[in-house]
Amino acid sequence: MNFHIALMTELLAACENNYTYQENYDPYRFGELSEQPTTLKGAIRKTMVRTLESRGYSVALKDKDFNGWVAQHLQELEPYLADLQHLYELLADEGSRRLLLQLIAYRVLGLTKVKLPLNTPEYWEGIRSMEALMDETKFVEAPFMNWRLPLIDLHKKGTPVRLHFLPIGAYTDFVLKQYEFRSGSSCIKADEGDYVIDAGGCWGDTALYFASEVGETGRVFTYEFIPSNLRILKTNLSLNPALKDSVQLIERPVWESSGETMYYIDNGPGSRVFMKEEGKHDGKISSLSIDDLVTEYNLPRVDFIKMDIEGAEPYAVRGAVRTIARFKPKLAIAIYHSMSDFVNIPKFIDELGLGYELHLAHCSIHEEETILFAQIPRA
User: Does residue 296 sit within a domain?
Assistant: First the structure.
C-alpha cells in the first residue's frame, strides 16, 4: 500500500478510539497520577508537563484543544513525510512498516487514540514479576529524580545477573530483550563470541545483558563517562564477577570525531552535555569515536553496535563509518529522540551502500524506545 494512503488510513481508524487515560498511561515512566483527571489536558497539566516539554509537546497540549493539537502535530510532521515514505519503503518486513504507522499515529493523536502493541496484560504482569525479585533493603541512590535503585536478582528468571536497577528496566532489557529483533526468519542480536560496542552504558544494565549473551569468548566495550552513572555501573559490574571480565569500560563520550572537549552537568540519565563552556558545569571530558576506539584497542572485529545516547546517535554513527564498512556489524540504534533521527539515521545507513536490511522495534507503551535494527543478509 502507498505510504500516504496507509498513514491516512491508520490515523482515521485511530480517531475512532477513546482509550481512558489510565489504561494507556505509563506510571513507571511518568509517575503515579495523584488523582484521576477528567480530561487529557488536565492530566498533562498535573503530571507530564515537564516531561513533554522536553519532547516539544507541552505548548500545544496546554493551550489548544485536541483538534488544534493534532493540526499542529500534523504540521510538524509535514517536512518529514517524503523521508518517512522512503523509510517505509526501505523497511524489510511488514511488521516494521505497520509499527512505523502506529508510532507516527501515536505521536500525532496521543494516548487516548492510539494504543501501542506492547500495552497488554502480559506486559504489566511482566513488570510485576520483576518487582517480586526486588530487595529494597539493598539499594543505591541515583541523583536523577532522587531514585533509589533496588537490588534485582534475575537468576530466578534464568538470567545470571544481579544489579541495582528499576523493575521496568530489568524487564525491558532482560525479558523483552530490547536490543534483539526477531521476525519470521530474521534475527538480529548479540551472539556468543561477538564483540559488541555498547554506546550509552548508563548504569551497566546493557553491558551486563550483552556480556551474558556473548559469553567468555566475546567482549563488550561500554561507553559511559557521567560520574554518577559510572559509580552505579561499576557497582553493578562488581555484583557479577563471572561477567565483569568481558566488559571493557570506555570512560569517554562517543562522538563523530575524537578529541572534542565536551562539558556536562551530572544528572544521571538526565545529564546534559554541550560543546561550549556556557555557565556552570560539573566537568569536561574528551570524546572518542568508534573508529578510533577500534584502532586504539586494536579490535580484530566488531560484530554488533548498539547506540542509545540521548540524541547523539547521528554523530556517533558518522564516527563509526570505517568500522561499519570494514566489519559490517549488526546495528541497533535508538531513533526516538527526534523525528529527524527517525528519517536521517536509516537514510544514512542505507546510503552507505553496504546492503543493510532495516527493521523497526519498539519497547514501551509511549513514544520512547524505538530501535532501528540493521543487518546485512547472509549470502
Answer: yes
Which helix (H) or strand (E) segment is 146 a member of? none
Residue 101: the pLDDT is: 97
pLDDT digits (tens, 9 = 90+) for 247-299: 999 999 999 999 999 999 998 888 889 888 877 888 999 999 999 999 999 99
pLDDT tens for 23-50 read: 999 998 888 766 444 444 444 444 444 4
Contacts of 72 (CB under 8 A, 6+ apart): 60, 64
List the one residue out of 349, 351, 297, 354 whose CA is nearest residue 327: 354
**Residue 145 belongs to a domain:** no
**322 is written with which cell numbers?**
570505517
Q: Looking at residue 100, what DSSP letter applies?
A: H
Q: Which residues pair with 370 in a beta bridge?
A: 362
DSSP 269: B
Q: Looking at the structure, tell me whether residues 204 and 105 fall in a common domain.
A: no
d(CA 368, CA 245): 32
Could you tell me which residues come within 8 angstroms of residue 223 by beta carbon, excluding any fewer than 6 positions away?
197, 198, 199, 200, 201, 250, 252, 253, 254, 288, 309
